[in-house]
Design brief:
By secondary structure, the chain is an alpha/beta fold. The chain has two domains: 232 residues, Rossmann fold (3-Layer(aba) Sandwich), CATH 3.40.50; 44 residues, no CATH class. The chain is built from seven helices and eleven strands. A nine-stranded mixed β-sheet has the order 9-8-7-10-6-1-4-5-11, sandwiched between helices.
């Protein structure tokens, strides 16, 4: 069983400023980047499949060289057997369509996977287009908003529960043939039914964390020539989307102040206790003080 998981680096909004060029394109090389949060659910779905059916999980991304660390994050925090980055200047400033063409060509260099997983949408663009568009290029059955799944290897089928139009109140069960493309919903929750599966999960987690320490040994980087795509159809040249304007992302203001208190400073601790008493009442604060003394 071979699973491919698509992931993407997104701006780390916790870092404050996000850099754009004069044309309104995000300068990813100058912006702190983390793995897209929604992609974790796709990784968890692939890991569950790996636990139950064996095989291997390949994680792929398209982006600048700095995305190597995004792939490392995927390997370390969830799971990956091998990592794949498609990257060169010809791919820069791609919209979702040009990205999908690039990713689908990258996937084809790995052979024909049994399942391709993608996250629901990214934290920057929030279009939710890249997964389904990549699937369109690959011409696989597509199941979106998946919240649970299982695979029957003998029958060659995938059975999934999915939210109908993203509505958590309406769930349907669908079945399709493999190979298939799965878009995991943020409501996805992995399930490990037996002690054997939980032990396998524990072992795989330990293995992937160890592997991530030397992730470059498991990383393959390919450019547009390696994946056999025409530069006219990727990157900015291959992107029909026009960005009319971009609003800067302001740093969120702090809503409250924090005061550092040395626990050995009796006077300062008394001030804290007094503040607690005024906020919650003498009886509750006394209970809190007694608990602290224990």
């Amino acid at each position: 069983m071979h699973m491919v998981v698509l992931t993407k680096g997104v701006p780390d909004f916790r870092e404050g400023q996000v850099s754009f060029d004069e044309d309104g394109h995000l300068e990813r090389g100058k912006t702190p980047t983390v793995m897209n949060p929604n992609d974790r659910f796709a990784l968890e779905a692939a890991l569950q499949t790996r636990v139950r059916h064996g095989g291997r999980v390949s994680v792929m991304s398209m982006g600048p060289p700095g995305y190597k660390e995004v792939l490392q994050e995927a390997m370390e925090t969830v799971y990956a057997d091998d990592l794949h980055l498609v990257s060169d200047r010809e791919m820069a400033a791609a919209d979702t369509w040009a990205t999908a063409i690039t990713l689908s060509a990258g996937i084809e260099t790995l052979g024909e996977p049994d399942v391709v997983f993608a996250g629901f949408k990214t934290a920057d663009g929030e279009t939710g287009h890249t997964g389904p568009q990549t699937n369109w290029c690959l011409d696989m059955p597509l199941v979106t908003h998946v919240i649970s799944l299982d695979i029957d290897e003998e029958a060659g089928t995938l059975r999934a529960k999915r939210l109908v139009e993203g509505d958590i109140e309406e769930i349907e069960t669908v079945e399709t043939e493999l190979p298939a493309f799965v878009v995991a919903d943020p409501e996805f929750e992995p399930s490990y039914r037996t002690a054997g599966e939980r032990l396998t999960l524990k072992d795989l987690r330990e293995e992937t964390r160890a592997r991530a320490q030397n992730y470059e040994e498991h990383l393959t980087v390919r450019d547009h020539a390696d994946i056999n795509v025409d530069p006219d159809y990727i990157g900015l040249d291959g992107s029909p989307t026009i960005v009319s304007s971009v609003d800067p992302i302001p740093k969120a203001p702090a809503e409250r102040e924090a005061t550092m208190v040395d626990p050995d400073d009796t006077g300062a601790m008394q001030d804290v206790l007094t503040a607690m008493q005024s906020a919650v009442g003498d009886g509750d604060a006394g209970d809190a003080a007694a608990a602290g003394g224990d």
